[in-house]
């Protein structure tokens, strides 16, 4: 573990070569990127943090906003001596990537935004996220995981790994992230300002972030590519790793031609 401003951040630092940083979503952990580790190491250096409150990082109760997650990642990379890298994230991880680019654009060589969206939360969404935070603290992660299983992973796809991550997530950390996401800003202007190679990826069957949202993001980002992963819902990197990895490889080859 590495101490990040009093928060110990667990992480994997695997392989060698061009650095790639991948940020997990809610309520997952760094192991969601195992299919990408298997494909891209060796040849790349993959750095996979557990966000504060998730995985093996210490639980942080209260509220954790996206800008705090982004600064945690920047501090971790400073300590690892990694200045520039390709940065990718899925769902909440994608929103953290947007905030990281807002704060530290000079550090980012390429961007992966998977199954995510840039908009600020609606008033209804603010209430829903805070209500869900209260529920996770009251009930734990199990009932929530059972409810959303087939929105995370399309029917017929293997959901065992996804379910294990969700049920093992600390409720306090997940609740803190939900309260922080309820206060997120609009990242539309951030997307318009991205000047590095960018891939927007989305599962064809994703109900949380529909294909139409991914198409809108692609249109906002100058020169961005869009990959729609057939047969996948919200976790295409796990559900359809070959297709996801092929699209991601095209981005990496563009950055490091």
TrEMBL record:
Domain AB hydrolase-1: 20-247
UniProt xrefs under SUPFAM superfamilies: alpha/beta-Hydrolases
One function term, GO molecular function aspect: hydrolase activity
Keyword DNA-binding tagged: no
InterPro entries: AB_hydrolase_1 (IPR000073), AB_hydrolase_fold (IPR029058), AB_hydrolase_sf (IPR050266)
Keywords: Hydrolase
Matching Gene3D superfamilies: alpha/beta hydrolase
Keyword Hydrolase among record annotations: yes
Protein name listed in UniProt: Hydrolase
Signal peptide: none
Pfam entry (one): Abhydrolase_6
């Amino acid at each position: 573990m590495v101490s990040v401003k009093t928060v110990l951040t667990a992480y994997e630092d695997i392989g060698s070569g061009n650095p790639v940083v991948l940020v997990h979503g809610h309520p997952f952990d760094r192991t969601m990127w195992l299919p990408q580790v298997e494909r891209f190491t060796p040849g790349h250096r993959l750095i996979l943090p557990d966000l504060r409150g998730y995985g093996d990082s210490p639980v942080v109760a209260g509220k954790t906003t996206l800008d705090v997650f982004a600064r945690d990642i920047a501090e971790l990379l400073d300590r690892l001596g990694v200045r520039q890298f390709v940065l990718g994230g899925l769902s909440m991880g994608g929103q953290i990537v947007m905030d990281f680019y807002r704060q530290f654009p000079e550090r980012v060589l390429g961007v992966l935004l998977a199954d995510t969206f840039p908009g600020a939360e609606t008033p209804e969404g603010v209430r829903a996220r805070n209500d869900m935070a209260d529920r996770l603290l009251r009930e734990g992660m199990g009932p929530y995981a059972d409810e959303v299983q087939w929105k995370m992973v399309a029917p017929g796809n293997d959901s065992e790994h996804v379910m294990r991550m969700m049920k093992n997530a600390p409720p306090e950390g997940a609740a803190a992230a939900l309260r922080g996401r309820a206060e997120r800003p609009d990242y539309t202007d951030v997307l318009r300002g991205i000047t590095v190679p960018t891939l927007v990826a989305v599962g064809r069957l994703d109900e949380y972030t529909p294909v139409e949202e991914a198409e809108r993001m692609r249109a906002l980002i100058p020169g961005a590519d869009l990959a729609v992963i057939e047969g996948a819902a919200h976790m295409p990197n796990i559900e359809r790793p070959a297709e996801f990895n092929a699209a991601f490889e095209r981005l990496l080859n563009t950055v490091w031609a």
